[in-house]
Amino acid sequence: MDPVRNPFAPGAGQRPPELAGRERELDAFDVVLERVARGRPERSLMLTGLRGVGKTVLLGELRSMAIRRRWGAGKVEARPDAELRRPLSAALHRAVRDLAVRHRAPDRVDDVLAVLKAFALKSNKPDAKMRDRWQPGIDVPPAHGRADSGDIEIDLVELLSEVAELATDVGSGVALLIDEIQDLSPEDVSALCAACHELSQSGAPLVVVGAGLPHVPAVLSASKSYSERLFRYTRIDRLSREDADRAVLAPIEREDAEIAPHALDALHTASGGYPYFIQAYGKAAWDAAPTNPITEEDVRVAAPEAESELAVGFFGSRYERATPAEREYLRAMAELTQGKDESAVTSDIAVSLGRKPSSLSPARDSLMKKGLVYSAERGHIAFTVPHFGNYLLTRAD
């Protein structure tokens, strides 16, 4: 098979050639956009799921839907130990520029940009030297007395209100998309919830769409008790067998190629229906096939290549971030779950390692901060990465 024509695209956040199995989420967001356009109240959205299920891809697709509706749209990726103010400023700057194209009053747009610049400049530390102070690329003087208090909760409410009013002026809306939302600091989470609460009460045409790991609802709830009613939570999971087959068949057929039924079965067994793995195994199977169609033997031959690539880029890069004590904890989890994508009981991990549960808290908490595990429920812990337990059991250290 010609490798140049290989349709599969394993990559972080890279849109697959066939976005299968996400019609429900896309249709639901289309309803949100339409309701907001008609002045109807609507909750912001939170997409949750393990790594590799396509949350980032879906977030990008929702952004494209908003843009096609001629909304202003900006996207942020939260990062651990980094404040939200600066990247959020850049995302909203993009959204305001989208709206400015349709606005007939440049002065009104400049007023909003001035508030945005004032908000952005507060990311600089008061004692920072002039050469170290960040300057946002906004060509208007900063406003005074609006979104510049230094309190992120107050400032974010005021800024998003200004941006939403601009959207109202042009009969449009704004979508703010935030990826890896579990990595926000507690202060930023609190500010985001407060801002969404204020906007929902006023009926402002601004929707926040967040994406993150399965414990995001708990993160938001710990910040604001009303967050449970503030957002609509959607769990993004592995694809059904039908959708997983479509994710493989559609790209192959567009290249006028075929795959044998037993090869399709083997690909599904290997990938487990997880979108990222479908792309990884599909790409390797295509490259391994000497002729059309792709056979079960081609999938078998290709599997080690796909697994080797996943071991380095998907599993290994995360495992290397763990300390020796954390790796010990991860291996104990893998052994207790027998490599399956299930949660382990934290007290069982302590027994397995011959340690007191309290002595393992630092390792567990650090792994959670690194995004390698999450607390599925009280007293339970699970991997954020599908098949990670199996990877650990087969890893030769």
Question: Nutshell version of this structure?
Answer:
With 397 residues, the chain is α/β, with parallel strands linked by helices. 53% of the residues lie in helices and 9% in strands.
Give descriptors for this structure:
single chain, Arc Repressor Mutant, subunit A, 16 helices, 3 domains, Rossmann fold, globular, 397 residues, alpha/beta
Protein described:
Helices cover 53% and strands 9% of the residues. It has 397 residues and is an alpha/beta fold. It folds into three domains: 23-235, Rossmann fold; 240-318, Helicase, Ruva Protein, domain 3, CATH 1.10.8; 323-394, Arc Repressor Mutant, subunit A. Helix 6 (186-202) links the parallel strand 3 and strand 4. Helix 3 packs antiparallel against helix 4 (106-121), helix 13 (324-337) crosses helix 14 and helix 13 (324-337) packs across helix 16. The protein is globular. The model has no long low-confidence stretch (mean pLDDT 91).
What is the fourth-level CATH superfamily of the largest domain? P-loop containing nucleotide triphosphate hydrolases
- How are the strands of the largest sheet arranged? 2-3-4-1-5
Order of helices and strands: HEHEHHHEHEHHEHHHHHEHHEEH
Q: How big a fraction of the residues is strand?
A: 5-15%
Topology record:
Blueprint: H1 23-37, E1 44-48, H2 55-68, E2 72-77, H3 85-100, H4 106-121, H5 152-169, E3 174-179, H6 186-202, E4 206-212, H7 216-223, H8 227-230, E5 231-235, H9 241-254, H10 261-271, H11 275-288, H12 296-319, H13 324-337, E6 344-345, H14 346-353, H15 361-369, E7 373-374, E8 380-383, H16 388-394
Parallel strand pairs: 1-4, 1-5, 2-3, 3-4
Antiparallel strand pairs: 6-8, 7-8
